[in-house]
Design brief:
By secondary structure, the protein is of the alpha+beta class. The protein contains four helices and nine strands, in the order αββαββββββαβα. The chain is elongated, with a radius of gyration of 41 Å.
């Protein structure tokens, strides 16, 4: 009888282990299934910053607008002598502006004033009024340029040098070697005073004054 009771005790212990194992296995499979289902659902969800678990990946770089190739450039001109009348013109953007951001445009304007300078004017300032990928509006504040010609003694103030080369009027950069403009003006087209002036060499301060000077000696 005691032997039979011993078998019953052993059987009960083994049955308990088996039952615990089965219950644990089922619970484990259930949790694993939940994880798999969750991962499958997450993989099907559209991209959302909130779905990213790692905080270090949440800072997505902001995409800035850049100038398109077919963008238009509106130039507003305000003259110091007549501030009430502002004229506007529509241009194609320079190739150098294409692909630039707002900050790039501001930098370009500060470094390329001569591109926007017209004959007979001096630019006081260039301002970016509005910016989009399709249209840029800038304000150009100008005043009428003075036609100042410097002598050789004042040559440190010049940017261009005018002289004859084989009876043709040539415009050089300040190094007096690099040709800036090869004009079609010849010695015979000029009056005596202008000839004598150019024979000595004429220094010009800026490009606006240069164009005014060339126009004046041929009119």
């Amino acid at each position: 009888m005691k032997k039979f009771e011993r078998y019953i005790c052993i059987f009960s212990v083994v049955a308990g282990f088996v039952a615990a194992y089965v219950i644990g296995y089922k619970i484990g499979n259930k949790e694993e299934s939940k994880v798999i289902i969750h991962e499958e659902l997450m993989s099907d969800m559209p991209y959302n910053r909130e779905n990213i678990m790692d905080d270090s990946t949440k800072d997505v770089a902001k995409i800035e607008n850049v100038v398109k190739e077919d963008a238009k450039l509106i130039v507003e001109v305000c003259k110091q002598e007549d501030k009430e009348n502002i004229t506007t013109s529509k241009l194609n953007v320079p190739v150098e502006m294409i692909g630039l951001t707002r900050e790039g445009i501001v930098e370009y304007l500060s470094n390329n004033k001569e591109y926007f300078q017209e004959k007979g004017e001096e630019i006081d300032s260039l301002l970016l009024v509005s910016f989009s990928e399709d249209k840029i509006v800038i304000r150009k504040n100008v005043h009428e340029a003075e036609m100042i010609i410097y002598t050789n003694e004042d040559s440190q103030r010049y940017n261009y040098y005018i002289a004859f080369d084989m009876d043709k009027v040539m415009v050089y950069k300040k190094d007096k070697t690099t040709v800036f403009i090869e004009t079609g003006i010849t010695f015979d087209m000029l009056d005596r005073e202008t000839r004598e002036s150019i024979e000595k060499g004429v220094w010009i301060e800026n490009i606006s004054v240069l164009y005014r000077y060339l126009e004046s000696i041929t009119s």
